[in-house]
Structure formats: C-alpha cells, structure tokens
Amino acid sequence: xxISDAEQLRRFxxxxxxxxxxxxxxxxxxxxxxxxxYYEEAVEDMFEETSIxxxxxVVIPAENMRYARVDVLNTAIRAIELGMNLHGIEPLxxxx
Length: 96
What we know:
This protein is an all-alpha fold and 96 residues long. The protein has helices at 5-17, 27-34, 36-50, 65-86.
C-alpha cells in the first residue's frame, strides 16, 4: 500500500494529536519518516528484483484507507481466481 508524503504526515500528526491513538506513534516512526526517500528507493529496488509474472508485486494506492482495503481484497480475489483457472479449477459464482 502506498501513500504520499503529505498523506503520511497528515496521518502522523492526526495520530499524535489523538490521545486514544498517540501510543501507536513512536519516535522511531518519526525517525523512519525522515528517511522516506531512502525507503522509497529500496522499495523500487525490491520490486525490480523480486517481482515475477507468477508472483508480481501490486501497488495499492492508499490515500483513502477504505478504498485501499477494498482494493486489497479485490486484488487478492482476482489473484486467487487466476490461480484456480490456471489449475483447471472453476471459481464459484458469487451469490446474488
């Protein structure tokens, strides 16, 4: 799941300012955020080196968390159905 720098900052600040969620945000999170550029480069390298046709990486846009969660589920379902089809298994028809 991928979010922009601005959205990550907004979420961090929101969590920091919420007494019910502030415990989830640590100094380590802020230190790692300062290294975001290096993490992004490492992620790109990882995708390039490890994504293969049989097991591709899928980047899910996550600016909107509700949309992202649905997209993750749909992506997983498509991958499972594709794998089933490749092995001659017919996926069940969704209930209507």
